[in-house]
Each structure stands twice: as structure tokens, then as C-alpha cells.
Amino acid sequence: MVSHTPLLLLPLLLLVLAAGTQAFYIPGLSPNVFYDNDRVPLFVNKISSKNSPLPYAYADLPFVCDKPKDAKRAWLNLGEVLRGDRISTSDYQLVVGKDIACETLCTKSVSAEGAAMARDFIANKYNVEWIVDNLPGATRYNLADGQANKERTYRAGFPLGKEKWEKSHIHNHVTIRILYHTLPGQGGGKTIVGFEVNPYSIDQGDSCPEDPLKVGTFQSVSDKEVDIKYTYSVQWIEDKELTWNHRWNTYLVSTDVETHWYSIVNALVTVLFLSGMVALIILKTLKKDMSIYSEEDMKDDLDDGAGWKLIHADVFRTPRYSSILCAILGSGVQTLVMAVATIIFAVLGVLNPSYRGGFVSFGLFLFAFAGAFAGYYSARLYKVFKGTSWTKNAILTATLVPGFLMTIVFLVNLFVWSKNSSNAIPFGTFLALVVMWFGISLPLTLVGAFFGQRKAVIEHPGRTNQIPRQIPEPIWYLRPRYVITLSGLLPFGIIFIELFFILKSVWEDQFYYMFGFLSLVFVTLLVTCVEISIIVVYFQLCGEDYNWWWRSFFASSFSAFYIFLYTLVFFTKQLSIDHFVPGLIYFSNSLMICIVYGLLTGTTGFISSYWFIRKIYAAVKID
């Protein structure tokens, strides 16, 4: 009898995970403490836009002030480099407790080409990212009188410029507000809890405007040479309510919690529906089948009938392209381990928006170290298929899918290099990725395969005939193309609402922090993949079709196709990308994300189907 205990434990697991669906909390580790007259560095990072996935290093722009002579690049983790961050020191003087009415930073002589570039960036709504004490500069909203220390909403970054009266005006003056919290018993020590930037476009004369709101002219940029004067003001404002541990809360205000809960309810309804179908199969249909098949006196009646027992001598027959299937499933296990570990780290607070580039860095390193799991599972399955060279299989596992993805990354990167974008992967970083691949992932895959091939072969109930049984023509709606197409809709239905928020965070440079909801959706997605694959495979076997190996993989992984279609809708409805290279970046990245997702869901469906089939054929008497 197949146990259905995991299905009964699902509601309890969901209730436990529900604790993580509240607003994300950024844990405080060791805040920087500043005292009066301490200098606080302001770092400039990049400019980016939701209208283009091509960011540019702010310090390298030809229309801003030149880099300081002693400018230093900040150390970046792998994720920061891959997302286009280029953090550098600046000449902005921020001294704790010292307000600045107006200070001239520089006067920049901009060429016609540089001015045209600035105009194009402004037209594409590029935002500027600066950093103070690891806080991104933000534009503040809800600034009603008397509510300076109450609820407020931040939008990370500030616009490079604005378009008005059919002209492009660059923001050449900024009012910087540093919010600080005084620590009790620390001798006047302060922690920075907010970094606000209010930008202005001002056509300035020789004097620095102390009140930019009273200046009625703007600094325009066009296709002509222009001199741009950059100025700034600084205000230090004490915030007695906001503490360092909660300073990210203003960046993470969400008004879509009800939508997330709707997504969860939608997922739970789907899971309960599928659970009912699986329970029906296990508790009624399958139980009845096994009781009939176990009766010796009913043997003659069943010889002329149809059913899943009739193919017991063919159901474990080695499939076509078995070595490729082993490699793909090995990479799927590798992806599954990476995804589960990354989500656990995110729910625990290790990965959060304050850890810039953390998701990408952790994901890549976890994927590399999970190569051991890939090699182990691939080798065990390869042994089931009576493979003769486990080393070749391990190398294929470590190179097939990663090699395809790396080829896409390399080709797209050639186009990004041509645009001088900071999103272009430097040669050193690309070399580091190759070293991770061949220096960590490949050796660990071989190690895992070594231990996997030493394990005893997975035993199957019954023997496989030498001559394959003829497969009858299936009913039209049970044909593979229809079954796979329809079965992929259910996993997609689980995630499509949450997918919208994920795509917005990726392509519109917004913070994603609802990891409790993400974990709930992820668990229900995996449960859905398990159940839909079992249902598809069972009805296929009832039709005396024993070619279930690949179909169990595609039954749940085909939802990746619907996700790719959804990215097309998101591209046309949410984004305004109208150039070739940005569009190429979007679709190539979407394709790679869908491939990784398909590996994860397809492997989950395959493993569950394989377990299910071994259980049901072991539970009956097979002659």
C-alpha cells in the first residue's frame, strides 16, 4: 500500500511557513557608529532604467564630474559584478552634524556627444544609484507637513533628469538628507537610518543657489556642447523613532500583501484538487487494482484485459537517450538543491536586500558545490540503465546544461561589451565563472558519481522482457502532446501571480523581500509537480504505454514554456524596451531562467514518478 502521509502533513508544513510571510526584517549585525565631524563617504554606483537592462557606471559617464584623483573602486562580490554594480568613491563631502547650504562640486564641459548621451538617458528614464553606509539614495514620498518621522515610502534611486516643454533637463543639483539616530549611552554616537536625495535641474550662474526651489530656469542638454555646473546641499536630520535594525523598512513597504495571499489561496486550491485525485488513485482505483491482481483465481480474466500490470515486464525498460536523461536529471537535482538552500537562507534572513548581489553570489556557489549531488544521482540512474562508463556520464552531467547556459552568456556578453555597459561581464569575472565550473563543480560531480556508482543498483520489481511489448494506440486526449501541454498549466497556475512580483524586482530594479510567500509558493509548486506527474504517469500506464521516463519529466517541466510566454506578455505590457541589444538581454535571460526552472520542476516530477512506479509494482504479485 502506498503511504499518503506526506499529503496529510502538507497543511502543517504550510502553517509553519506562513510565519515568514510578514514584512521582511533586516537583522542588525554591527552598525557603523559615527560621531560629530566624522567624514561619511558617499559612493556612486550606476544608472539604470526599467526601459533598458543596460546599466552604466555613474563615475564613467562623460557628462558628470570627473572621478576624484584618489578615487577607489569598492570591492564587489560576484553577484554585484554580474548585476552591473560599479561602486566608486566621490568628492561629495558629508561631515556628521555639518549642514551645507550649497556647495559647488565642479563645472563640467560636456561635448556634443556627451550631451546627446545624457539626453538619451533622460528620455529612457534612467535613475541614479548612490550609496551611504550601505543604504541606497532614495526619493521620498508622503512628505506631508508634520509627518517627517511618520510613515514614509522610499523609491530607491533618483532620476537622472526630466523632460519638460519638449526639452531634456539634467539634474545638476541635489539636496542630500541624512537621517540619523543617536544611540543612548554611546557618547553622542550616531547611526545612519536614512539617505534621501532630492534632485533639481537648475540653470546656475556664478553663485550657488541656496534655495533651488526659487530658481525658475533649468539646465538643458541637447546635441550641442554645454557647461554643466554641479552643486549640492546637505542636511543632517535626527530621527528619534527609526532605529538601525529597522532602517530598511521604509524601502520595503508593500501594498500588495492581499495579492500575495490570493496567490497562496490559489495555489492551495490547486494542490487540494490534485491531492484529491492522487488520493482517489491510491485509496480506491489502485487499491482495487492491486487486490484484483493479487488474486490467483482472477489471473485468467485479466490476461485478456488492459491495465498497468500488463506492462510490468516493460515498464522499467531503458528509455531512449538514457545518457542525456541522466545528465539532465543530474543537473536538475543540482538546481533543486541550490533553490532549496537559497530559499532557506533567504527565509532565515541571511540573504536580504541589504546584502547587495547576495542572491546571485549564493546561488552560483551553491550550484557549484551541489555538483556532488548531481554526480551521485546521475551515476545511480546511469547504473540502472546499465551504462558502461560512469566517468563519461559524470562529465556529460557537469557540462551539458552548464555549457549551454555559459554559451548563451558568452554570446550575449559580446553584444553588451559593444554598448560599454557596466552589465558587461569583465574578463576576470568570466574567468572566475569558468574556474568555478571546471575547478569546483566538475570535480565535485566526479566525486559524487564515484560514490554513486559504488552503490548497489536500484532494484526493480520483476524482470524486463527482451522483446518490447506493442503499445496500443492511445485515446486522443491521452496522446503525449495533449497530456504534456495540459499538465504544464497547473504548475504555472501556482506561480504566475508571484512570478509578476519576481519579474518586477528583476527588470524594474525593485526590492523583493517577501520570502515567506516565496517559500509557500515554492513548496506548493513542488507538491503540484509531484502530484501532476504521478497522475499523468498512472493514466499513461493504464493505457499500456510504458514510455514514461521522459514524459514524467516533461509533464511538470513544460510549465517553463508557459512562463516564457508570460515573459513575452510582461515585456509588452510592463516594459518599454525598443532596442535590439536590451531586448536580446531580456529574452536570453528569460530563456535561461525558464531552462533552470524546467530542470527543477521536471526533476521533481521524475523522481516522484519513479518512486511511485516502483512502489505500485512492488505491492502486487508479479508472475
TrEMBL record:
UniProt KW Chaperone keyword: no
Stated family: Belongs to the nonaspanin (TM9SF) (TC 9.A.2) family.
Subcellular location: Golgi apparatus; Membrane
Organism from which the protein derives: Entomortierella parvispora
Biological process annotations from GO: protein localization to membrane
Cleavable signal peptide: 1-23
Name under which the protein is recorded: Transmembrane 9 superfamily member
Lineage: Eukaryota, Fungi, Fungi incertae sedis, Mucoromycota, Mortierellomycotina
Transmembrane regions listed in the UniProt entry: 261-283, 324-347, 359-382, 394-417, 429-451, 482-503, 515-541, 553-572, 584-613
Topology versus the membrane: Multi-pass membrane protein
A GO cellular component annotation in the UniProt record: Golgi apparatus
A Pfam family per the record: EMP70
UniProt main location, coarse: Golgi
Keyword annotations: Golgi apparatus, Membrane, Signal, Transmembrane, Transmembrane helix
